[in-house]
């Protein structure tokens, strides 16, 4: 089961290199990630960095700094592109006050901060940017403290001015942890339809441990939340790719504690409104089985190849890696 090629290395300098995001830009790939000393979001040494590759991830240019200020622990939390094709990157800033900054880059090397957000409720994370016609740029967010109390929420953020300002909408609030979809990854499908897969935060032996499937048919105004049949997850962040030419939807996730990068591939129409009909997983790549010290896959597609960025290591040192997975041909 582990006889798969090794991933490519993006960054493996000493430290906790983690939580990567990958985006296509200018004919190449840009991989952003966070580095600190341990698995912690509030350490002041933590900053955000980027590297660019023009050969499919085989080699990477010198690292550039997105941001690393002494008063905040900064982590990359979401990526995308704006209406002009420039890269967007959400950065969580944890310090005396929490806020979320949005950076823009036209070249994947220099990043300009274009927005500072302090929404209420304050998100734990704002996720990848998607484009929704007639609406604007859209992101999911989730807020909570990972406790088994009715205090968790999620919803959307929408920008109509190319990322400069954002309007927050709460979809659900006062949720128990078991009912709380987190780290959502969404895809706009056309005709007002949006689908997202979300992580669940419940324990290993809980029957509710299944990925969530979120659906909208009205450009994100209203949502239906369902549980899938995908339970081989342990705090696994999903990442979606949709191939409109084949109708295939790819659901990537790293099975923490097991060390496997997996994907499930389904015809969109087969699982739309049928979240328990996802087929069995395919093994894509491997990584560390050291519990939380590997995972958080983020994927982008280019010319039929799915570039999967994740991190892997132990409690002291981790590396950001990438695996180029071939897409499946439609039937």
Spans of at least 5 consecutive residues whose pLDDT stays below 50 are none
Put simply, the count of helices is 1
Number of domains: 1
Quick one: how many beta strands?
25
> Helix share of residues?
under 10%
The portion of residues forming beta strands comes to over 45%
Tell me which CATH architecture applies here.
Answer: 6 Propeller
**CATH fold-level assignment:** Neuraminidase
Give the oligomer, counting copies of the same chain as homo and different chains as hetero.
single chain
Largest sheet: 5 strands, antiparallel
> Any idea what the shape is?
globular
Order of helices and strands: EEEEEEEEEEEEEEEEEEEEEHEEEE
Tell me the distance between the termini: 26 Å
Rg for CA atoms: 18 Å
Structural class: mainly beta
**Overall CATH class:** Mainly Beta
Mean pLDDT: 95
Any overview of this molecule?
With 331 residues, the protein is mostly beta strands. The chain has one domain: Neuraminidase (6 Propeller), CATH 2.120.10. Helix content is 1%, strand content 53%. The protein has one helix at 268-271, and strands spanning 8-11, 16-25, 28-36, 47-53, 64-67, 73-81, 87-94, 98-105, 112-117, 125-126, 130-132, 136-143, 152-159, 167-175, 182-190, 193-199, 212-216, 224-227, 238-243, 248-255, 260-267, 282-286, 294-302, 305-313, 318-326. The strands form six sheets. Strands 10, 11, 12, 13 and 14 form a five-stranded antiparallel sheet that branches. Strands 1-25-24-23 form a four-stranded antiparallel sheet, with no helix packed on it. A four-stranded antiparallel sheet has the order 2-3-4-5, with no helix packed on it. Strand 23 and strand 24 (305-313) form a beta hairpin. The longest helix has 4 residues, at 268-271. The radius of gyration is 18 Å and the shape is globular. The two termini are 26 Å apart.
